[in-house]
Amino acid sequence: MKPFIYNIPVKVYFGEGQLSNLGRELSKYGKKVLLTYGGGSIKKIGLYDEVIKEIRDAGLEVFELSGIEPNPRIESVREGARICKEENIDVVLAVGGGSTIDASKFICAGAKVDFDPWDFLDLEKRAKIEDALPLLTILTLSATGSEMDNGGVISNLKTNEKLSNGSMCMLPKVSFLDPKNTYSVSEYQTACGSADILSHILEVYFTTENDLFMLDCVMEGLMKTVIKYAPIAMKDPTNYEARANLMWTSSWAINGFINGSKSTAWSCHPMEHELSAFYDITHGHGLAILTPRWMQYCLNDENIYKYVQFGVNVFGIDKNLSDREIAEKAIEKLSEFLFNDLKLQSTLKDVNINDENFAIMAKKACKGKESIKGFRELTPEDIENIYRMCL
Amino acid sequence: MKPFIYNIPVKVYFGEGQLSNLGRELSKYGKKVLLTYGGGSIKKIGLYDEVIKEIRDAGLEVFELSGIEPNPRIESVREGARICKEENIDVVLAVGGGSTIDASKFICAGAKVDFDPWDFLDLEKRAKIEDALPLLTILTLSATGSEMDNGGVISNLKTNEKLSNGSMCMLPKVSFLDPKNTYSVSEYQTACGSADILSHILEVYFTTENDLFMLDCVMEGLMKTVIKYAPIAMKDPTNYEARANLMWTSSWAINGFINGSKSTAWSCHPMEHELSAFYDITHGHGLAILTPRWMQYCLNDENIYKYVQFGVNVFGIDKNLSDREIAEKAIEKLSEFLFNDLKLQSTLKDVNINDENFAIMAKKACKGKESIKGFRELTPEDIENIYRMCL
Fold first, then answer.
1. Which residues constitute the domain of residue A96?
2. Paired strand residues for A378
3. Is residue A5 part of a domain?
4. Which residue of A has its CA nearest to B176?
5. How many domains does chain A have?
6. Nearest to B13 among A5, A222, A244 (CB)
7. pTM of the full predicted structure?
C-alpha cells in the first residue's frame, strides 16, 4: 500500500431548496459571472430562471455561454475562455451535466493563459494547468462526477481525439446537488449515467494493487446503490430517494476517495473514449457495452479472486460455488443489469459501429503508450480483440 | 430526507514517509508553532524527534505544551491558550490521539478570545466559537476521528462535566495519518479505540430518520472493516494493513460524510461521557459496555428492521430467520465481538463502577434537556435502566 494524499475541498449543498445560497457563494469570488450550460434543458425545467434570479438578486453581472455539447468540444472551451478574458469574468457557474462542467473546467483554465486551451489536452504538448478561474456547479445529471473531481474530458473532432487532464485548480469550489434537477433526465440518459457511475467504481475496484479493504467495502456499497436505484429512477423518474442515491453516489464514485493509493491506469474509459471520439455515442452506453467483455477478456487464475469478491459481495452469488462459476456468474449478472435492467443495447452493431476503425482506435486508446497498464495489461491487439467481442 | 451541506476541507497525508511535507504545510500559516502532545509516548516511538527536526528544518520556532491527559481537561486548554496569546503563536500542531487533538482545538479557539475557554463548553454560557488558530495534526491513535472533524470533548473534573462543542474554524487544516505511528498502541487501547470507531458508526446507523441507502452501505462497510481488523491489530500490532484500515476508518466514521442529512441525537456517547466524567474510565471501553445494552433496551416492533439490516449485512446472519431472531443474534454477535474478540471487560462492575451515581449521571447525560431524543427517546429513567443493565 503506497502513501497517498486525500484532498477534496469541494463544498456541496445537497438536496432541495439550497439554491438560496448561490448568490452568497458566487459573491465570494467577484462580481462578473459566466453562466455556462448545454442545449437548453435547464430552461425547460425552470432552473435557468431560478439561477438568473439568484445571480441578479446578489447584484452580480451575468454573461452566458450556451450550447455546450455532449462529449464537449474544444471549440466551446475556446469560446468560453475568450469571453472570460474579454469580459474580465471573475467566476464561472456551470449548470448541467458532466459535459458542461468538464468544458467549464477548461474554460476556467483557458481564461488564465494566452495559448490555445487544447494544449492542456494534446498528448505531445500537455501544457501544465497551473491556474484557473473559480468554478461553481449546479448538477443536472448523475454520471461523470465532474462536480466533485478535478478532471475533465474534451473532444477534438478534427483530430478524432477525446482526451482528459486535471488539476487541483480546476476543482469546483462549490457544487449544488439537487436530485430534483435530474427528474427530467430521460430513461436512456439515466441508464447511461448509471452505467458511467458503475464503470468509475469498477475501474478502481478491478486493479491488481493491494489497498484498503475498507475502500473495497465502500465501493461494493456504492455499486449496490447503483444497481438498486437506477432501475427505479428509470421507471419512476421523480422518485426523490432514487435520484438522491444516484446523485451522491456519482460524486463519490470518482472524487478520489475510493482510490486510496491505487494508481493503476483505467481500461474501459480510454477504450470508450475512442468509440465516442469516432462515433459520438453516449459515453455511458459505450462503457456498458465494453465492460462485461473487458472483464471476460481479463479473467485469469491470478485475478479471479477479485471477480469472486465482486460476485459474492455485490450480487450476493453463493460463495460455495467454485471460483470459476462465481466469476462467470458475476459477469453474467453485470450483463443482465446493464442490458436488461438498464435496457441498454448490448453490442456495437446495435449502435451502428462496425470494425472498420478498430485497429486505429485500439492504438489510440493507449494514448501514445504501447499498452494500457491496467487490471491486466492490454496491447492494441488485446483492445482490438475486446472491441471485436462487442460486435 | 432533509437537505444537508457536505464540507470537509481537511487535507490528509496518509501512509509512511509523509512527514517530509510537514514543514511546508506548517509554513503556510506562519513562523511560530505550538507543539501539543500527551504523556510522552511520542518520544518513545521517535516521533517527537522527527517532528522537531521537520519544524526546525523549515526554519520555524517551536513552543511546547505536553502532558495533555486522556479525557483532556480544561486546565490543559487554558494553559495552551495562555501560551498562544503570550507567545503570539501562529499555528498549533497536535501530535497524539483524540485527547490531544480535542484539547488543541479548544486551545486554537481559546487563543482568539479573552474569556475562559470553558465558556465554549458550559451548557449555560455556550459561547460561540467564531475564530481559531489554524490546527495541524499528526495522529497516533485510531479512535475519535478528531483528526478530520470539527468537534472536541473536554472534561471539567471540578464540575464532573464532560462536554463537547464544535465549529468549522476548529477543523484541522492538514492531518498526517501514518499507520506506523499506531504500532505501539497497546492491545487494550487498540480495543478501546476500535469500540469507539464502531460506536461512532452505530450512533448514526441506528436512527429513525430515513436517509440515503448509499450511506447505510458505506457504514456497513466501515463496520465490517473494524470487525475484521481490530482483532488482527491486537494480535499483531505492527500489521500495517490492519493499522491502516483502522486508521482511515476512524476518520470516516465521524467526519460527517456518513451522516448525510441525519441529525438525530447520539445516545451512547452522552451516556458514556458521564461514566468517564465521574470515573475517568477509557471512553471506548465505556461505549463497549453500554452499546449492546442500549440496543437491547431500544429494540421494538417499529425499529426492528434496522437490527435486521445490521445483523444480515454486517454479521452475515441468515436472512431467513425471523426478525426477532436476527435482532437478538445481531446483539449477541456484537457483544461477542466487543467482549471476546476485543477482550474488553463486559460490565460496569468489572471497571469498578457501582450504581451510586446512576441517578445523577442519567440526568446529566441529557445535557440540560428532559431526554435524549435519539434512536429511541431516553428519559433519565430509561438511561438509569440501561446503566443498571450494564452492572
1. 11-181
2. A372
3. no
4. A5
5. 2
6. A5
7. 0.96
